[in-house]
Amino acid sequence: MLEKMNNISTQPLDDSVPVCKKRKCDNECNEAEKDGDSSSAVVPFSFAFSDFKLVKVLREDARGKLVTLHGTVGDKDAVVVLERKAFDIPVLEECLQQTTVKETLQNDVYSTFDVYSSGSIAHMKATLIHPATEKHISKYSDREPFIVRETPELYRSVVLPSIQENKFSFQWVYNILEKKTESERIVAEDPDPEVGFVMVPDMKWNRENVESLYLIAIVHRRGIRSIRDLRQEHLPLLENILNKGLAAIEEKFSVKADKLRIYFHYQPSYYHLHVHFTHVKFEAPGTDALRAHLLEDVIDNIKMNSEFYNLKTLSYIVREHDALYYAFQDKKYFV
Amino acid sequence: MLEKMNNISTQPLDDSVPVCKKRKCDNECNEAEKDGDSSSAVVPFSFAFSDFKLVKVLREDARGKLVTLHGTVGDKDAVVVLERKAFDIPVLEECLQQTTVKETLQNDVYSTFDVYSSGSIAHMKATLIHPATEKHISKYSDREPFIVRETPELYRSVVLPSIQENKFSFQWVYNILEKKTESERIVAEDPDPEVGFVMVPDMKWNRENVESLYLIAIVHRRGIRSIRDLRQEHLPLLENILNKGLAAIEEKFSVKADKLRIYFHYQPSYYHLHVHFTHVKFEAPGTDALRAHLLEDVIDNIKMNSEFYNLKTLSYIVREHDALYYAFQDKKYFV
């Protein structure tokens, strides 16, 4: 019955809605039952896990308490992303009163417990994609990772031809640079065609909490694909992004240089040079040493040797079904 | 009543214990109630969240679904680490049958739901430290991070004196190297005093799942504090660790080089040179570009310039209350 309450979708449980502490916790614990009483809404869609037949676990993230499942609902494929809920701090203490615990270990001052809730608390959230296509299933699957050690020779013989062959469109990048889109979101800009850039918020940032700040500086100059292409002639561009980017972030968000992780991705997700600025407290995806290259390290390395990134072997992760995965496979790189 | 079941601590719910799928799920859902019936045990310790008064949220990890709380139990301080449970894949499908869902959003093929369990499922685990000292509270607190750009000059004037002053004991390291402890855990070894090392599993690895493989190679040679000290003369040592380490891991665990992230930490947690080998699928702490330095990059950089790590400015995170934090503060590095 609950699963038919489609009218609730117009009023999602939103943490940002202010409610008194007491009520919020009651809601979280009891709303499921209460909602069962009102059933006058139109029902264009319904779902219950009793209708879901598991086909395969696509991905498991034990640290993030998340699993992705491929299954069927009726005769159609479905993908379900199941994730434990983060704790709701304002009402946590109160909600904990309604729990019982079972000790699993005790040693000196340390004890561990399993925690059970007596009320009906929504402790998971689910995302359902139904009907799901092959593409959905592939996108949510755990694709096997391989570490590639890209020598300059491998770059020239495998990677560069693959990038050129894929003919990515940069129209969306040019739209930002020419202020045709997202112009109201611009945080900093320098129109100079050689050393200029436009800085905009990344989609992953809600622009509310500066501790999850994520900005992207996109260079005006065209034709620089990635750090592989950087030489001494680009130092004024790189130093301009660093200095003007830092100044703009301090001015607009009061976040100082010593709180900012500033880096390139290699491989990048698109081959028009751009720099990531993220708050050091934000565990952004792609900050791993196998992908992130600190802007200041790049500047130092090029100053030491203009050909550093022309000569360097660069290590990174390639995943099954990536375009680059097929390019390396064609050359029999993986054994 | 449940919280007094201290006898349960001798039989922790252990996922590795084989039980039939049906029973496991029933257990997870109902064990809390069932256990309430047997109460003949000695009760040296009891805890319930109704006794816990929250003082302060020490740390929040929304991605890991984890919070650390400082509170009091009676008149004593306590630290509680509260963490959502990861999903138990073998019984997941069955447990999902006992849930109800409430739709929170619907758009085309995408829907999101809050998920409620009807049974009593342990969906959190808690670690309690009680009584807790100031040191416990500080250890579990979120300490403010600062990015330091350590120039060679800062290394010599601030960092090296701080390392020397702290006079860390390496006895536990020497015990491993001399096989006084952990000798049964050794994965690979080369007794050569110049290029040799001992490889042992890190405490974070349970040695069961190779996809969370975490090994440490500790060099026999004494006096190399960190990558700052590495020069061309150390290339045979570094290449020996790389080659023999990879060979041992492939032989013992069938994990190949293209699945292994191999790196130093800078700053390291102890100043006797050691190398981390982790499975690329394992999101080990400390793989961020602000801490991890790939062994193969270090080898390449030293080959290019023996003084690379003597001249390089190295960026890393220092946290409030770290020894280095105070060292930098004394020199008025933070403004």
Structure description:
2 copies of one chain form a homodimer. Chain A has 9 helices and 14 strands. The first copy, chain A, is an alpha+beta fold. The first copy, chain A, folds into 2 domains: 2-139, Scavenger mRNA decapping enzyme, N-terminal domain (Phosphorylase Kinase, domain 1, 2-Layer Sandwich), CATH 3.30.200; 145-330, HIT family, subunit A, CATH 3.30.428. In chain A, the strands form 4 sheets. In chain A, strands 8-9-10-12-11-13 form a 6-stranded antiparallel sheet. Chain A has a 4-stranded antiparallel sheet with strand order 1-2-3-6. A two-stranded antiparallel sheet of chain A has the order 4-5. In chain A, a hairpin with a 4-residue loop joins β1 and β2 (66-73). The longest helix of chain A has 19 residues, at 235-253. The radius of gyration of chain A is 25 Å and the shape is globular. The N and C termini of chain A lie far apart (53 Å). Mean pLDDT of chain A is 85; it is low at 1-24 and 26-44. β6 of chain A pairs antiparallel with β5 of chain B, so a sheet runs across the interface.
Give a topology summary.
2 copies of one chain form a homodimer.
Chain A (H helix, E strand, L loop, with lengths): L20 H15 L16 E10 L4 E8 L2 E9 L4 H9 L1 E9 L2 E8 L4 E8 L4 H6 L5 E6 L1 H15 L4 H7 L10 E3 L6 E5 L12 E6 L15 H19 L6 E6 L8 E6 L12 E3 H10 L3 H4 L2 E6 L3 H8 L5
Antiparallel strand pairs in A: 1-2, 2-3, 3-6, 4-5, 7-14, 8-9, 9-10, 10-12, 11-12, 11-13
Helix pairs in contact in A: 1-2, 4-9, 6-7
